[in-house]
Design a protein that fits this description.
6 helices; about 45% helix; 4-stranded antiparallel β-sheet; single chain; Gyrase A, domain 2
Length: about 150
């Protein structure tokens, strides 16, 4: 069931403008695939779908580009395209993104498996990055700012 569902997700995202998980869930239900929002969310992460800006503050789900799917390349591309600012306080780094892009950037940060990052929590346009004890959030934020400035 999962491989069929994920293949259908790939097909839907390639052929339609899908802006939200709810829209994707509705498309799947029209194809007679029973699914919850939580399952769709996991599928999006596993398929490494990205949100691409469409202009006017809107973005859509898309398949990752070949060659930039994993690790640093994906992270660099997302930072260049979606991150608007980075700040640090205590053991947290706060990353600001374009609206609707925080989940994609957080997923890329998690996928990059950086040893000094414990994990991320993403909202719509803000990510909290938890930094491992003994590491400084300021140095992690500085590395993120370097990614941000490289793309501009």
């Amino acid at each position: 069931m999962k491989p069929r569902r994920q293949e259908k997700i790939r097909e839907i995202v390639e052929k339609n403008v899908i802006e939200t998980q709810e829209e994707l869930t509705e498309f799947l239900r029209r194809e007679h695939i029973k699914v919850t929002q939580a399952t769709v969310s996991r599928d999006i992460k596993e398929l490494m779908l990205v949100k691409k800006p469409m202009g006017g503050g809107r973005s859509r789900y898309a398949l990752p580009e070949s060659g930039s799917v994993r690790g640093e390349n994906r992270l660099e591309n997302l930072f260049r395209d979606a991150v608007t600012g980075v700040d640090a306080s205590g053991n947290l780094v706060v990353v600001r993104t374009l609206p609707g892009m925080a989940n994609a950037v957080a997923s890329a940060l998690d996928g990059a498996k950086q040893p000094d990052i414990i994990g991320t929590v993403a909202g719509d346009d803000t990510i909290f990055v938890a930094v491992r004890q003994g590491k400084t959030a300021a140095s992690v934020a500085e590395r993120m700012r370097a990614l941000l400035s490289e793309g501009r």
